[in-house]
Each structure stands twice: as structure tokens, then as C-alpha cells.
Amino acid sequence: MYAAPRTLFRPSRARLSAGIAEPPGTGNACITTSALQSGTVTATYSGNTCFTGSTGTLAVTVNQANTTLTAGPAQVRLRVNDTFVIPAMSATLKTTAGATPVAGQTVTFRANTADGPVTLGSATTDVSGVATLAPSQLTVPSTVITATSYTASFTGTPCYNASSVTAPLSLVLFPLLP
After folding, report:
1. Helix (H, G, I), strand (E, B), or coil: what is residue 120?
2. Contact 53, 63 (CB under 8 A)
3. How far is CA 47 from CA 23, 27, 56, in A?
4. Fewer CB in a 10 Å sphere around the end CB: N or C, the chain?
5. If we measure between CA atoms, which residue out of 40, 41, 75, 44 comes closest to residue 147?
6. Is omega for the bond preceding 24 within 30 degrees of 0, making it cis?
């Protein structure tokens, strides 16, 4: 009975959770991971009755992926109780190359008012890369009515570069919202 040899990969800064199996006779080992950061990877082949074990080390550089944020216009609305709300505000985070949605990342929303930026809140991107500011009827200070735009910002991570987008924000007084 033939037992396939195994190769163990050990990165310098991350743990790989995938098991590695080599197709018999190919001499190749493959791994897929999203946990790898720049540093070194050491591959250790334990050997078997036919082949001697060996170890090799390789320097690895992981480049951050560029990102793009997109956002549509939003409105500041007046309620019947004389408070201001933003009924809906969202932004979509994707990689620039390939337009792949980036999930699980924080996007911060700021209204660009006459007195300077006012932070409205933060939201986490879903599997489609969409961050929706919640609650859906976000009460905002009256200073936000001077804003003509808002900015959605992603600060970046070790894997993704930062990006931001500015979109229109308009004041709509009528009809009043409940």
C-alpha cells in the first residue's frame, strides 16, 4: 500500500489551517490561504521509504489589493416631530481589479457640513461588499442640514488599501416623514 508523502508549510507570521496532500508522482504541493502575510514560508517534506525528507524556505511578499468605494445620493429628511433623519445610506467596497466584493470591513460615514465633517456612524460590509448605515432611520443633528455631500471611508487593512468616496447629500423638508 502506498502512503502519499506530505509537505507541511509554516509561514513566519500566520498559521495555515489547510492540510496539504500531494498527488502521487507529481513532486508538487499546493496550498491556498487567506491568512498569509509578507514574511517567509518554510516547506518541510517528511520523506518516505523511497525519498529523503527536505526543507526549503522562501521569502513571500503579499501586496495589498487596491479597493474602490461607491456610494449613491442620500437625503436628510424632516420628521413630523421636528427631528432630522437619513432614511438610507450605504456604500459598496470592492477590489479595484476584478471588482470582487470585500466583506467584513468597516466603512465610516461623515456628512460634509459647513462647520466641518460630522461622523454619522460606521457599518460593516456584508458578503456583497455593502455597508449600510443602520438604523435605517438614522437621527442626525441639525448641523447636518448644511451638508451638500457625505464621505464614506475605508481605512484599509494589511490586505486591502484604503479608499473613500464622496456622494451627494440633500435636504428634503417635504413631505414630512413619520
Report:
1. strand
2. no
3. 14, 12, 13
4. N
5. 75
6. no
**Distances 145 to 94, 118, 136, 163 between C-alpha atoms, Å:** 30, 11, 18, 25
Query: CB–CB of 139/84 below 8 Å?
Result: yes
DSSP, residue by residue, 158-177: SSB--EEEEEEEEEEEEEEE
Residues whose CB is less than 8 angstroms from the CB of residue 141 and which lie 6 or more positions away in sequence, other chains included = 84, 118
The candidate with the shortest Cα–Cα distance to 69, out of 106, 24, 16, is 106
Taking only the tens place, the pLDDT of each residue in 45-82 is 777 787 787 787 877 777 789 999 999 999 999 989 98
All three cell numbers of 93, joined, read 467596497
Cα separation, 55 vs 114, whole angstroms: 62
Name the grid cell of 156. 484599509
Between CA 147 and CA 150 the distance in angstroms is 7
Q: What is the pTM of this model?
A: 0.70
